[in-house]
Design brief:
The chain has 261 residues and is an alpha/beta fold. Strands 3, 4, 5, 6, 7, 8, 9, 10 and 11 form a 9-stranded mixed beta sheet that branches. The protein has a two-stranded antiparallel ribbon with strand order 1-2. It is globular.
């Protein structure tokens, strides 16, 4: 339901909802319509290495993945990068309203991902300053999926598979030597992703996410290390629901308890 005490977004007059994730430990203000944070962001945060200290969340939206990571890793600082001004403002508000307050460890940068860590780009986040980059990019390729007529929904959801390469280049610039990348994407983009990672990242791990044990994967959780040349490896799949349709024990552990994979 729409939260009665939350004002509408100024830009498009959108009502907001106040949603509880991670079993109530993460509260998110987000638009009632359009792109909404869900399992993808939480799975991405869960897939990140537990020893990360300086993380950057590219295309953060309202902050779901980065804030979930900050809750899971209390020693980590997180920079949320979001191109849409109104959405970035929601991410700031979401960081401020968590209990305990995360605003001291989370900052928000309103910027185009492709401009990061360049001489002509913003000063922060700086080149080679991160040990982890999270990436939940728009991944509905217009060649395979209908594009929303609503501009902000299209911006959040739709981009050609090949357009992921500028994001990967940005991640490489932001990461220190040996820094790690964690991203979530659709299985049909795997070939494009591996091509974009080649020469920049190695030790690539690929974990398929299945809605049920017998169903094809609907997402891939991909990890990689900057500068490595180790060949890719497939990891055991993650199954979200059992035969009865109820969440699996692993899904409960990750999505409600906020633990790492």
């Amino acid at each position: 339901m729409t939260h009665p005490d939350v004002p509408a977004l100024v830009d498009e007059g959108e009502a907001l909802t106040d949603d509880a994730l991670l079993g109530g430990r993460l509260r998110l203000l987000q638009p009632a319509r359009g792109h909404r944070a869900g399992h993808d962001a939480l799975l991405l945060a869960a897939s990140a290495p537990a020893d990360a200290h300086r993380a950057v969340d590219l295309g953060s939206g309202v902050g779901a993945a980065g804030l979930a990571l900050a809750i899971r890793l209390p020693a980590a600082t997180v920079t949320l990068v979001e191109i849409d001004r109104a959405t970035a403002e929601l991410a700031r508000r979401n960081a401020d309203r968590q209990q305990p307050d995360l605003s001291g460890r989370v900052r928000v940068v309103t910027e185009d991902v492709t401009r990061l860590a360049r001489p002509s780009g913003p000063a922060e986040p700086a080149a080679r300053a991160a040990d982890l980059v999270l990436m939940n990019p728009p991944f509905n390729d217009p060649a395979r999926h209908r594009v929303s007529p609503r501009a902000r929904r299209a911006l959040a959801h739709s981009v050609a598979d090949g357009a992921i390469e500028p994001w990967l280049r940005a991640a490489e610039r932001l990461l220190e030597a040996g820094g790690r990348l964690a991203l979530i994407h659709r299985p049909e983009a795997l070939e494009t992703l591996l091509a974009g990672l080649s020469g920049r990242f190695g030790a690539v791990t690929i974990r398929p996410v299945h809605p049920r044990a017998e169903a094809p994967a609907i997402r891939l959780l991909i990890g990689a290390v900057k500068g490595r040349r180790t060949p890719p490896a497939f990891l055991p799949g993650l199954v979200l629901a059992g035969p009865d349709g109820r969440p699996s024990a692993e899904a409960e552990r990750l999505l409600r308890q906020g633990e790492g994979i």
